[in-house]
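note to self: the first set is below, dont mix up w the second
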Amino acid sequence: MPDAVAANLPMKDEPPAPVLLVTGLSGAGKSTALKALEDLGYEAVDNLPLSLLGPLLAVPGGHRLAIGIDARTRAFSPELVLQAMAEHASPARPIRILYLDCSGPELVRRFSETRRRHPMAQDRPAGDGIALEREILSELRRVADVVIDTTDFSTNDLRRAISTRFGAPGHKALTLTLMSFGYSRGVPRDADLVFDMRFLKNPHWDPALRPLTGLDAAVSEHVKSDPAYAPAFGTIVGLLTMLLPGYAKEGRAYLTVAFGCTGGRHRSVAVAEAAGAALAAEGWVNSVVHRDQAAGAVDDEPEAGQAAAGERKGPE
């Protein structure tokens, strides 16, 4: 089963996956919360018409579902929301309400900064719309299972709060990609961190290893036999295991760590594979991509010290 699909299904020992009804005041962060839940493996539906809420809640399934309920919806009624919950909630399919609150002055500031009109005060001050919406939603706030006040929250603060409360145990929302590449073909544009492996001895200069790649055991052993490999590799993996929790905590959804060598076929491939295994052992699910591993050698300047003087030299 693909990881992307498996991540959205509950494990056998996990409690039933609840349906989350995400609601609250306009400007309090509902869109950010739904995106954060989506990153945690929920299927997110926003601005659902109330007429479709009951049929959607009636659909069986063990997947996580987050539904955005907006007071702006035509014929919105907290009573209809609670009625749909009462009709379809069960021990096998619990339904929870996440309510996002915020102080009035902060909401006024946010609408002023974005130059947006409050949806319930198109021709009146934003404060009037905020007060009206707060009154309409008061019953849902009263019965909400989780209330998050975002008055003093940044976007990242809210994402962290969502991850803390609704992430599956051990879940790491960060999508980590390890990439090997060849400098002769350029540094990857989407790389966040880049490590240069050209200080390691080059398998290209061994005729028996030249046709192979870093995916072959002989090349991997050759790279790892360099005395500089072990201390450098340990330092790199140690640095990554120190940095990755910080990136995840700050709400980063994607991180690409690139390892480069001259041609992108030998050293960078071997190191990326080893780093992927080491990080996976630490609990960091990752994918390893080899951008240039299958590409043929290209003309380039030789690296100093990799071949004897007068010998014709070329890149990996």
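second set (the one i keep forgetting abt)
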Amino acid sequence: MSSILTNNGAMVALQTLKSINSDLLKTQSEISTGKAVGSAKDNSALWAISKVMESDVKGFKAISESLSLGESTIAVARTGAETVTDLLTQIKGKVVSAQEENVDRVKIQADIDALTAQINSVVGAAQFNGLNMLQGTEDVNILSSLDRQSDGTVAANSIEVNRQSLETDGGVFGAGTLLTDGSSGSALLSDTTLTATGNTLNINATRAAAGDFTVTLGGTAVTVAAGADTAATETALVAAINAAGIEGVTAEIDSGNVVLTSTRAFEDVTVTTSASGAGNALEVGAAASGVFAGEIAERAENITFSQTGNVTEGDGYRITIDSKSYDYIAGADENFEDVVRGLKTAVDAGQIEGVTTTVAQDDSGAWSIKIDNSEPDLSISVTGRAGGEASGGLFGLDNIDVSTNQGADAALANVETLIQNSIDAAAEFGSAQGRIEIQADFISKLTDSLKSGIGTLVDANMEEASARLQALQVQQQLGVQALSIANQAPQNILSLFR
């Protein structure tokens, strides 16, 4: 049925043309914007996901900048630490030269002072944007990642870089908790004496028959024939020991006993005895004790710290010798080896007449500082307190003095500790810089992957869109023609009335 009031054909053609125009408009939008999902109405789920990922990309760009800044900062610190190591190596060469007595130590000391001033200059200048990793003790966190969880929460992660103080200051001794040596309930060294006379051991002869009496001191054997009686035998033994010229060892008779004395600073002297002949005996300690071996302890006073205890930043240990104090305050991540070496440096810097030091570790792993004295007796005590400010990593550098034999000897051991500290600092910064570089490379690749993922979700397929555009343009032309034909239909009805 045909009607001049309702043109169904035109309505169908119009709806078809509107649909074609809508698809054509969408395709043109894809081509012009390059996106298949340009807004939430296109595909709300994909649009929401893409926006979250785009925000992550923005965050990772900021992280990349943070890593670049951090890498530059650490690179400056590493270069500074390496330079300090080179300068300390030069100082070591000067210290070695000063071991000879026929050199001009005053000029050598002047060179050391100049190199020390240069080290302080390098440490002060090794900063980037105001941050100096060679000064202070507070660690620095470099933003390295944003971690998104499945529930949508985001957490920032950082790379922690430890400062490596290469300053020469002595720190500040605290007034906090009284410290033990780190082992449960054990106290530090009580007040005692740095003796100059050495340590002793008694041996006692019993002469009953003809025969020989032998005493071996630190590997050197001394043998005498039995005298007329015990007293004569002991007198002969004392004379033979003193004539043997054993380093640091002397013998004398005191109240009928043979007293062996050793002034060896850092070495125990092992003593073994034997006697031949019926009834003859040469015993360690009281007569008829049945002991034929002993030891004369080293003259040095041993201050031993726990092999299991922990050291906290700010823990300060103080050695007081004849009312003058020598301090070392621990820094971050240090242990008792660092404490012992720091105390040695502090005591050596005092250049106390006749006092020498060394560092040792026993079989159990415990570290100790040994302090010897060859002059009149000195009082010594040790205490520890928490809550101080850490000594610098090059503590003691500005106190190196090779103008005397004692100073030159002490400097040789102490400069090795300083070199090791600077090497450790450079290695720590090198490791941190390498990690930052790896993380920066990963963030760059991750950002590219996120961008690619976003493109997969929302970008338009341009080849497909181009083909669809041409098809829709043809459909639009056909739709216009179909609508035109449908609009001509009522005109055909008019011809029936002619």
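remember for set 2: Residues 8-34+460-497 form one domain.
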